[in-house]
From TrEMBL:
It comes from the Bacteria. It holds the Pfam family zf-dskA_traR. One of its GO terms (molecular function) is zinc ion binding. PROSITE patterns: ZF_DKSA_2. It comes from Zemynaea arenosa. A zinc finger (dksA C4-type) spans 91-115. This is TraR/DksA family transcriptional regulator. The keyword Transport does not apply. Residues 88-120 form the Zinc finger DksA/TraR C4-type domain. Keywords: Metal-binding, Zinc, Zinc-finger.
Length: 126
């Protein structure tokens, strides 16, 4: 079984914790509404006679972004748990190692690059 060294684990933990903090802040800001300048810009945009449907579109976009941020936050939390349990860096598909370079670029990665390429190729063929 592949084990990350302590330096790699520390680096990944730092990256994941920084991302987790950024996501928490983004979610909090989104849930507490836009800042005043953004609200004024939207108000001015619609005061100029644009469609109310555009306001609905903006709300739907906010919800979609919020859902994406929550999914990413769950992935970050899961990656931190894998680090804690010594399972980080192990491909969920083949059980082989996930390259440290891949984890640095995508610290929530569940699969090695070869398995990920196979998964993406299979998805394209559907």
């Amino acid at each position: 079984m592949h084990q990350l060294n302590s330096s790699d684990k520390s680096e990944l933990q730092r990256i994941l914790n920084e991302r987790r903090t950024a996501l928490h802040e983004a979610i909090r800001d989104r849930l507490h509404g836009r800042d005043d300048s953004e609200q004024r810009a939207i108000f001015n945009h619609f005061a100029d006679g644009d469609s109310p449907a555009e306001a609905t579109l903006l709300e739907n976009l906010d919800v979609a972004v919020l859902e994406h941020e929550f999914r990413e936050l769950r992935a970050v939390d899961a990656a931190l748990k894998r680090l804690d349990f010594g399972a980080a860096g192990i491909c969920a598909e083949c059980g082989g190692p996930i390259a440290v370079e891949r984890l640095r670029a995508e610290p929530t990665a569940l699969t090695c690059i070869h398995c990920q390429q196979r998964i993406e190729e299979a998805a394209r063929q559907r």
